[in-house]
Design a protein that fits this description.
Largest interface: A-B, 14 and 25 residues
Shape of chain A: elongated
Helix content of chain B: 40-55%
Largest sheet of chain A: none
Number of helices of chain A: 10
Strand content of chain A: under 5%
Order of helices and strands of chain B: EEEHEEHEHHHEHEHEEHHHH
Distance between the termini of chain B: 53 Å
Structural class of chain B: alpha/beta
Oligomer: heterodimer
Number of helices of chain B: 11
Number of strands of chain A: 0
Strand order of the largest sheet of chain B: 6-7-8-3-9-10
Shape of chain B: globular
Helix content of chain A: over 70%
Distance between the termini of chain A: 51 Å
């Protein structure tokens, strides 16, 4: 379709981008819909076997392998938080509030979001690369040809595994941020910060701080895995296509995670959750 | 001679197992398949030949339902694929098997688990029975010793055999082969051909083989069909194609094109078509510009 000479290139470019983005979002929504449909059928219908072994395998691959990195990263995030907050708090003589702030910030948002960014690599890129390679090797087509739905077989276990593992890892992350903050307080910030650290944190935190964090974690997990599966299954063109899918998965995942976090934050703020 | 339609007049009264009518598939602005007609009778081995890019792989994918055509009809077992919903299409898929070019084994499972997968998912057989059947299928393709190996641990020829064992797991009525000879040495190639012929006889399956390996084609075919740039040039018996191959050029463009392809010659209608007609203008035009 050739543009008419008086059609400005800018409008065409913007239009194309918008349509492309809408098309992409639509494709993702369809994939999500199919995934949920197959997941429910797997739970409720006796004839559709669930593939427990596949699910367990994916959970190991997504979650168990990334625990070490999550622990390390979140520990340091806790340290960083404490040391960054302390000077300002000291100005107001409130350095004992370090525990309160780290608890709230960590449990509500930092635990889930940093974990999600870590998993966009461990889970997202890895899933996209794996599915993309399968597409190139005609394995996905072979699945279809033996009357096995690729979404049921490949996407559902990966999405569920990522979702479950994101929630579990976020719990670990929350604890590690708290521990990192305590470590920094103990080593650098003095008794006013570390004495009663965990008591202060416990007094500050409400259940909803914990649960809103986990809800977000689950949504992040869903986003990462659906994006990864969508990119992986759409691969065209061999190794280069796989590489591109892997990269775009990480990029899109991070953008989606942050956007979702923002939406959640606004909602929680407005409704005072 | 009338333009070949590929649709058999049912002289024997038998209904074709596979029927393709006026199939059209477009890719961007090109006709990858241009009103293709084909009929495959039960029990026969139909070999579809043609050069690279002639559309034979696309035709195969339309037949197995992984690519939707833009026009025309495909019937398998008397049912029009376009009329079927996903569940019905799955039911049809269980009645055929396909060997992909590289075997397309699932790399995360062993050879045995690959072959067992259709049995586990589509039958209610218990595990012991499945294990026995897996070994039977692998024995048919000469791979019983590889049952515990991973696909990464076996050679290309073995991967194809394993893919074939998986394709026959559910005792299909039709077997599709996508370039079964690709990447194989001559001896393994001949062994695979023997396997194809043998399976056809032992199991009574109808076979559709897509290939451009002519020695193979003449070894295994009952009938052949030649595609060229999306157009079905000829569908006929093995003998008809042998006559074209062994006969003299007739001056008929289609006949000579087929003949050049069958004989693998470097001169003929195909080569003439590929040569650019404005070489001098192109060169001299470029020279003038500078």
């Amino acid at each position: 379709m050739t543009p008419s000479p008086d059609q400005p290139g800018l409008i065409r470019a913007v239009g194309a981008r918008t349509l492309g983005a809408l098309g992409y979002a639509g494709g993702m929504a369809l994939l999500l819909g199919s995934t949920l449909r197959w997941a429910f059928r797997g739970i409720f219908s006796p004839r559709v076997r669930f593939g427990g072994r596949a699910l367990a395998g994916q959970m190991v691959r997504v979650g168990v392998r990334s625990v070490g990195v999550v622990i390390l990263v979140q520990l340091f995030i806790g340290v960083i938080l404490a040391l960054q907050l302390a000077p300002t708090l000291e100005d107001y003589g409130q350095v004992d509030k370090v525990a309160n702030i780290i608890g709230t910030g960590g449990f509500r948002i930092l635990g889930p979001i940093i974990t999600a960014v870590v998993l966009s690599g461990f889970a997202g890129a890895s899933i996209a690369a794996e599915l993309g390679s399968m597409v190139v090797a005609e394995e996905v087509e072979a699945l279809e040809a033996i009357a096995l739905n690729p979404i049921r077989f490949l996407v559902v276990p990966r999405v569920l595994a990522t979702l479950v593992m994101m929630v579990l890892l976020s719990v670990v992350a929350d604890l590690m941020i708290a521990a990192g903050g305590y470590l920094a307080s103990r080593v650098a910030l003095g008794p006013q910060a570390y004495v009663g650290y965990f008591k202060h944190m416990q007094e500050q935190l409400r259940y909803r701080d914990f649960t809103t964090g986990l809800i977000q974690a689950a949504v992040f997990g869903l986003l990462i895995s659906v994006i990864a599966c969508h990119e992986g299954l759409r691969v065209r063109g061999g190794a280069e296509g796989v590489g591109r899918a892997t990269t775009m998965t990480v990029v899109y995942s991070i953008v989606a995670i942050v956007l979702a976090a923002c939406v959640f934050t606004v909602i929680f703020y407005v409704f005072e959750i | 001679m009338n333009a070949p339609t590929g649709l058999d007049r049912p002289s024997s009264g038998r209904r074709p197992l596979i029927r393709v009518a006026d199939l059209v598939k477009r890719y961007q602005d090109r006709n990858v398949l241009d009103r293709v007609n084909l009929a495959v009778q039960p029990g026969e081995t139909m070999v579809i030949i043609g050069g690279s890019g002639c559309g034979k792989s696309t035709l195969l994918r339309c037949l197995i339902g992984t690519v939707q055509p833009d026009g025309g009809q495909i019937e398998l077992f008397g049912r029009n694929l376009a009329d079927l919903d996903e569940a019905q299409l799955d039911a049809v898929r269980k009645r055929f098997g396909i060997l992909f070019q590289s075997g397309a084994l699932f790399n995360s499972m062993t050879v045995g688990e690959n072959v067992a997968l259709p049995l586990r998912e589509h039958t209610d057989l218990d595990e012991d029975t499945i294990q026995i059947m897996v070994r039977i299928k692998l024995e048919l393709v000469g791979l019983r010793h590889a049952v515990e190996l991973m696909p990464a641990e076996i050679s290309g020829g073995m991967k194809k055999r394993a893919g074939l064992a998986r394709a026959i797991a559910l005792d299909p009525e039709i077997l599709f082969y996508d370039e079964p000879s690709a990447g194989l040495d001559p001896v393994t190639l001949a062994e695979i051909d023997q396997l194809i012929v043998g399976l056809s006889r032992k199991l009574g399956v109808t076979s559709v083989v897509v290939t451009h390996e002519m020695d193979s084609a003449f070894r295994i075919a009952d009938r052949m069909a030649m595609l060229d740039k999306g157009v079905m040039l000829k569908v006929g018996s093995l003998q008809e194609f042998k006559d074209i191959r062994d006969g003299w050029p007739t001056g008929d463009e289609t006949n000579d094109l087929i003949r050049q392809f069958l004989r693998g010659e470097d001169e003929g209608p195909i080569t003439r078509r590929r040569q650019s007609t404005d070489y001098e203008e192109d060169i001299l035009g470029t020279a003038e510009r500078y």
